[in-house]
Amino acid sequence: MKLVKSLVVLASLMLADVLNAQLLEKKTLTLEAADKIAAAAETEAKKRKATVVIVVVDDGGYPLVLKRLNDTQVASVEVGIGKARTAAIFRRPSRDFEEQIKNGRVASLVLPGATPLQGGVPLIANGKVVGAIGVSGNTPQEDEDIALAGAAAFDAALKSPAPNVTHLPAKQVHAAFVKGMPLARGMNYKIDASHRDEAGIVEVHTRDTDILYMLRGTATLVTGGKVIDAKTIEPEEIRGRESEGGEIRKITKGDVVIIPNGTPHWFKEVNEPVDYYVVKVRAAN
């Protein structure tokens, strides 16, 4: 009986190995990626002041994202879907079929599921078509150019390396607080280890939002109001002697303060030395 059970288990394992050997790994287009592709195409369309429908489909031609920009004709919805589906299931730009017809191959008109109109572009990952983007509503060339902008964003995302993880050892962080200096910087953010034992001047960052996290100490922070003797010390940075009419608040250990860009702020009083993180997040132009 034990022998029979062992043979059954062995046969099952062998069958599983055979089945696994017959299955292929398949890359699929996620909704998150489709959103980004459509957004890139939308940006290009708005740059051109184009009224279009933008459709991103999976490799079976089924829509994941559909955007109909303001004042775009309703008829372009189905045409956009058709262009995207054609590029996905035939694994080539829909323009190819329009050109075939122009060159006399009218049989392309009866291909099942094909919309032989320029504006559909396949999305390719590691040499495989994982979906497509279709655009309809303007001239054939402009539709395709907008679709290509979405596809280019997808290609760029695939080629961009994963962001590096930054690790700052405690010793380095402590040293930064002693001096009050920057800890880390990215494309749209900066993290400072700030130390203060006396009052400061008014600061206004026209693009940076400051997020303060108090580690120790107590101080009086003033936000808003009118800056006195305001001077631009460098692009997007304004300083002043003091401010009037702002909101006064006591801040202490554990507090978090978010100061939107363009808001005057300053430490009017420092009751005891303070250490605090400042995360500066830069707004896009």
Short description:
The protein has 285 residues and is an alpha+beta fold. It has helices spanning 2-21, 31-47, 76-89, 95-102, 140-159, 170-179, and strands at residues 53-58, 63-68, 120-125, 128-136, 181-185, 189-196, 202-205, 208-223, 226-228, 231-234, 237-240, 242-244, 247-252, 256-259, 265-282.
Structural description of this entry:
There is one protein chain. By secondary structure, this protein is an alpha+beta fold. It folds into two domains: 129 residues, Beta-Lactamase (2-Layer Sandwich), CATH 3.30.450; 113 residues, Sandwich (Jelly Rolls). Helices cover 31% and strands 36% of the residues. The protein has six helices and 15 strands. Strands 5, 6, 8, 13, 14 and 15 form a six-stranded antiparallel sheet that branches. Helix 2 packs across helix 5. The radius of gyration is 29 Å and the shape is elongated. The N and C termini lie far apart (76 Å). The model has no long low-confidence stretch (mean pLDDT 90).
Strand share of the residues? Answer: 35-45%
Mean pLDDT across every amino acid position: 90
Q: What about the largest sheet?
A: 6 strands, antiparallel
SSE order: HHEEHHEEHHEEEEEEEEEEE
Helical stretch tally: 6
Tally of individual domains: 2
Provide the helix percentage: 25-40%
Q: What value does the Rg take, in angstroms?
A: 29 Å
Q: Could you give me the name of the CATH homologous superfamily of the largest domain?
A: Haem-degrading domain
Q: Determine and state the CATH class of the largest domain.
A: Alpha Beta
The gross shape turns out to be elongated
Which fold name corresponds to the CATH topology of the largest domain? Beta-Lactamase
**Unreliable stretches:** none
Would you identify the CATH architecture of the largest domain? 2-Layer Sandwich
Distance from N terminus to C terminus (CA atoms, Å) equals: 76 Å
| Total count of strands | 15
